[in-house]
C-alpha cells in the first residue's frame, strides 16, 4: 500500500487553485518560513515572524490570506504595508501572480511618487487587496478614498525597515483605523523594542516564527550575474558554456519542463547534457549523476528538489538560469561548486523585475555579486576556432589515417588541386551544414537591444513601464525573404506572447503549423522579445485562419495574432482569453509549384 500523505505545499492545507499556480511557477517545496507561517495564517491566527529578506515571506503571508479572501466582496479586505515603493510593487505583482486561478481577485498598489488619479480609479473598482507605503495609505485614508471598514487582515512587511525610515507612528495610526477584529501578520528581520511594542499592542496571541538562515557562501566561489536582455537565456547559456573553461556544470531552473527544454537545446548544440527533475525515476537520476562524476556528461539541468544531496567534486560552475525564490536556495545551489577547497564559479541570470531579489541575496550573504558582460560573437568564434583546430590536431594519427592518406594522394595525383584546398574541403565536410562561427556583423545590434544603464540607477527603481520594455530596438515592419523560396511573398505578424511567458521558437512554429495547417517550411523569420513576438508568414492569410490563430493559445496565453504595427505592441497587462470563437480551421497544403495554400477543412474536436 502506497503512502498518499500530501507533501510539499499540498501538505499545508492550501486550496487546489493556489497549488495549481505554485506548480506552474515551479515552487516544489515550501521554505522554512512558509512551512511555519502558512498553516497558522490559514487558521486566522496572528503571526509574528522574524526572518531576513529573501526567505520567501511574501508567499508565506500572501498564499494563506489569498485563500481566505472573498472574491465576491468588492471592497478592501487585506492591507499590506511596505516600507518602499519597490517592495510595494513587488508584493502587488506577487499577489496578482498567486491569484491567477482565483477569479475576481483584484490588487491595488498605492505609493508616493505617482499621481493620485490612477490610484483613485483602482480604488474605486473595489480591490480586495491594497498594498501600499504608510505615507500614501494615510493620505488616502484622510481623503476618504480608502475605507478599511471591511479589512480582515493587515500585513506589516519589513517592519524594522519601516521603523528605520521613520514610519512606525504612521503604522500605529493606520492600525488604529482598521477594525479591532482582524488578523495581523508582522514580519521583521530584527526585533527592536519599538517593533515589539507594535506587536504587543496590535497582535493577539500571535504564533511566533523565527527563521535562522544559512547566509554564508564559500569565499572561493566567484559570483557574477548577467542582466537578461537582447539575447534569449538559452543562447546566453550556450555562449557562456562555449567561452568559460568548466569541468562540469549544474544549471538550475524553476520548472520540470524547463529542465527538459534547456537540456534538449544544449544537447542539440553539442554538449553532453541531461535533465534532472522529480518526474525522472530515481534509478535514472542516479545514473545521470554517476555519468557526471565519470566525465560522461558535461551538464546537468536540474530543479532544486531533484538536486538535493547531490555532491560532485567535478562541478566547477553553477548557473542559476532562473533566479531562486529565496536566499537560502541560492546558497544551497552555489554550494554545489567550490568543493574540497577548490575554486568555483556561480552565475545568475537576472531579469529587470528580479533585481530586488539580487539585492536581497547580496544583503543576506554579505557579498557583492559582480555584473558580467555576455560573451560576444567574436569571443565565441575565437573559442570555436581554437577547439576545431584542436580536433584536427588530435585526429592526426599516422597508422589510423593511412587509408585516408592513400585516397588523398590519389586525388592530388589525378587532379590539379592544392593540398590546402583538399584539407579545407574535408574540414567543411566534417562541420556539415551548421555554420562554424556566429555572425559577428549583427551581434552588436542584437546586444544593444537593452542599453545597460549604471546599476546604481537601476537599483533606484528607474525602469520603464512593462509595456515600454524593448522599445529601443523594435522589429522592422518589413518581413524577411523566406529562405530558399524568395518568390514567396511574406507578411509580418505580431503575437502577444514572449519570453516572459516562456515562449520558445519551437512553441510558436508548432502552434502556427498545427493550428493554421501550414507547412513549417513556409514559416519565416521569428523574433521573440520579452512581452511579444513577431513572425513572418505567407501573404494572403484567409480571415478564417487569422481568427483561429487569434484565439490559439501558447504557453497558456492567447496568440492574439495581428498584422504587425508598432501601435499593436501589447502592454503588459493580465491577459484574458479572447471571447470570439474563430470559424473552421483551414487546411495545410501546397500547390505543385511549392507556393503555400490555405484551404478549408472539416472541423475537428478540440485536442
UniProtKB/TrEMBL annotation:
| Location of the motif Q motif | 7-35
Q: Among its keywords, does the record have Nuclease?
A: no
- Signal peptide residues are none
Q: What class of enzyme is it?
A: hydrolase
| Main localization category | cytoplasm
One annotated GO molecular function: helicase activity
Occurrences of domain Helicase ATP-binding (ranges): 38-209
Q: Where is the composition biased (Basic residues)?
A: 598-607
Question: What UniProt keywords apply to this chain's record, in alphabetical order?
Answer: ATP-binding, Cytoplasm, Helicase, Hydrolase, Nucleotide-binding, RNA-binding, Stress response
Instruction: Give compartment(s).
Output: Cytoplasm
The reaction(s) catalysed by this protein are: ATP + H2O = ADP + phosphate + H(+)
Per its UniProt record, what PANTHER family does this chain match?
ATP-DEPENDENT RNA HELICASE DEAD, DEAD-BOX ATP-DEPENDENT RNA HELICASE 47, MITOCHONDRIAL
Which protein family is it in?
A: Belongs to the DEAD box helicase family. DeaD/CsdA subfamily.
According to UniProt, the name of this protein is: ATP-dependent RNA helicase DeaD
Amino acid at each position: 500500500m502506497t503512502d498518499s500523505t500530501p507533501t510539499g505545499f499540498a501538505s499545508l492545507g492550501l486550496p487546489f487553485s493556489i497549488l495549481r499556480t505554485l506548480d506552474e511557477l515551479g515552487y516544489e517545496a515550501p521554505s522554512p518560513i512558509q512551512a511555519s507561517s502558512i498553516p497558522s495564517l490559514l487558521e486566522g491566527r496572528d503571526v509574528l515572524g522574524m526572518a531576513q529578506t529573501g526567505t520567501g515571506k511574501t508567499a508565506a503571508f500572501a498564499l494563506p490570506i489569498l485563500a481566505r479572501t472573498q472574491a465576491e466582496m468588492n471592497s478592501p479586505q487585506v492591507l499590506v504595508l511596505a516600507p518602499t515603493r519597490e517592495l510595494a510593487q513587488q508584493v502587488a505583482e506577487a499577489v496578482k501572480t498567486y491569484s491567477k486561478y482565483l477569479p475576481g481577485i483584484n490588487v491595488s498598489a498605492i505609493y508616493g511618487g505617482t499621481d493620485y488619479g490612477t490610484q483613485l480609479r483602482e480604488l474605486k473598482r473595489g480591490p480586495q487587496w491594497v498594498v501600499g507605503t504608510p505615507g500614501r495609505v494615510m493620505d488616502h485614508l484622510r481623503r476618504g478614498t480608502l475605507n478599511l471598514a471591511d479589512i480582515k487582515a493587515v500585513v506589516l512587511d519589513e517592519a524594522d525597515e519601516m521603523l528605520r525610515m521613520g514610519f512606525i507612528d504612521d503604522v500605529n495610526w493606520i492600525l488604529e483605523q482598521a477594525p479591532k477584529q482582524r488578523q495581523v501578520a508582522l514580519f521583521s528581520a530584527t526585533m527592536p523594542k519599538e517593533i515589539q511594542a507594535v506587536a504587543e499592542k496590535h497582535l493577539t496571541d500571535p504564533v511566533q516564527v523565527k527563521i535562522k538562515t544559512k547566509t554564508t557562501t564559500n569565499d572561493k566561489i566567484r559570483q557574477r550575474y548577467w542582466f537578461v536582455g537582447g539575447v534569449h537565456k538559452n543562447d546566453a547559456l550556450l555562449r557562456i558554456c562555449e567561452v568559460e573553461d568548466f569541468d562540469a556544470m549544474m544549471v538550475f531552473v524553476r520548472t520540470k519542463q524547463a529542465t527538459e527544454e534547456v537540456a534538449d537545446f544544449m544537447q542539440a548544440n553539442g554538449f553532453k547534457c541531461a535533465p534532472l527533475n522529480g518526474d525522472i525515476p530515481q534509478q535514472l537520476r542516479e545514473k545521470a549523476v554517476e555519468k557526471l562524476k565519470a566525465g560522461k556528461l558535461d551538464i546537468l539541468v536540474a530543479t532544486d528538489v531533484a538536486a538535493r544531496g547531490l555532491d560532485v567534486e567535478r562541478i566547477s560552475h553553477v548557473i542559476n538560469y532562473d533566479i531562486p525564490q529565496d536566499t537560502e536556495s541560492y546558497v544551497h545551489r552555489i554550494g554545489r561548486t567550490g568543493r574540497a577547497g577548490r575554486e568555483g564559479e556561480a552565475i545568475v541570470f537576472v531579469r529587470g523585475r528580479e533585481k530586488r531579489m539580487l539585492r536581497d541575496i547580496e544583503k543576506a550573504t554579505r557579498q557583492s555579486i559582480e555584473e558580467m558582460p555576455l560573451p560576444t560573437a567574436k569571443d565565441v568564434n575565437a573559442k570555436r576556432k581554437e577547439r576545431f583546430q584542436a580536433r584536427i590536431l588530435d585526429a592526426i594519427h599516422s597508422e589510423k589515417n593511412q587509408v585516408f592518406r592513400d585516397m588523398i594522394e590519389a586525388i592530388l595525383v589525378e587532379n590539379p588541386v592544392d593540398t590546402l584546398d583538399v584539407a579545407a574541403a574535408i574540414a567543411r565536410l566534417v562541420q556539415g551544414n551548421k555554420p562554424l562561427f556566429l555572425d559577428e556583423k549583427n551581434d552588436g545590434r542584437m546586444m544593444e537591444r537593452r542599453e545597460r544603464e549604471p546599476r546604481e540607477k537601476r537599483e533606484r527603481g528607474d525602469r520603464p513601464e512593462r509595456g515600454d520594455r524593448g522599445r529601443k530596438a523594435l522589429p522592422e515592419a518589413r518581413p524577411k525573404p523566406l529562405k530558399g523560396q524568395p518568390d514567396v511573398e511574406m507578411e509580418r505578424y505580431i503575437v502577444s506572447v514572449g519570453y516572459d511567458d516562456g515562449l520558445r521558437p519551437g512553441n510558436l512554429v508548432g502552434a502556427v503549423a498545427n493550428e493554421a495547417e501550414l507547412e513549417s517550411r513556409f514559416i519565416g523569420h521569428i523574433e521573440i522579445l520579452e512581452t511579444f513576438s513577431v513572425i513572418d508568414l505567407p501573404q494572403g492569410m484567409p480571415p478564417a485562419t487569422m481568427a483561429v490563430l487569434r484565439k490559439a493559445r501558447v504557453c497558456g496565453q492567447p496568440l492574439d495574432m495581428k498584422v504587425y504595427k508598432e501601435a499593436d505592441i501589447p502592454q503588459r497587462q493580465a491577459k484574458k482569453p479572447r471571447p470570439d470563437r474563430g470559424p473552421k480551421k483551414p487546411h495545410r497544403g501546397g500547390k505543385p509549384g511549392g507556393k503555400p495554400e490555405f484551404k478549408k477543412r472539416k472541423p475537428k474536436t478540440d485536442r
